[in-house]
Amino acid sequence: MKLETLKELNAERAARRPVIVVTDTANGEQRLVKAKDFAADPLNAELSKALRMGKSTNVEVGGKKLFLNVYAPTAKLVIIGAVHISQALAPLARSLDYEVTVVDPRTAFASPERFPDVPLVAEWPDVALPPLNVDHYTAFVAVTHDPKIDDPALLHAFERECFYIGALGSRKTHAKRGERLRAQGAKESDIARIHAPIGLDIGAVSPSEIAVAIMAEITATLRLPPKEKEVAA
Amino acid sequence: MLNRDEDILKAAEDWQKAGHGVALATVVETWGSAPRPAGSSLVINDEGTFLGSVSGGCVEGAVVTEALDVISSGQPRMLEFGVADETAWNVGLSCGGTIRVFVEKVG
Question: Do A6 and B104 touch (CB under 8 A)?
Answer without folding.
Answer: no
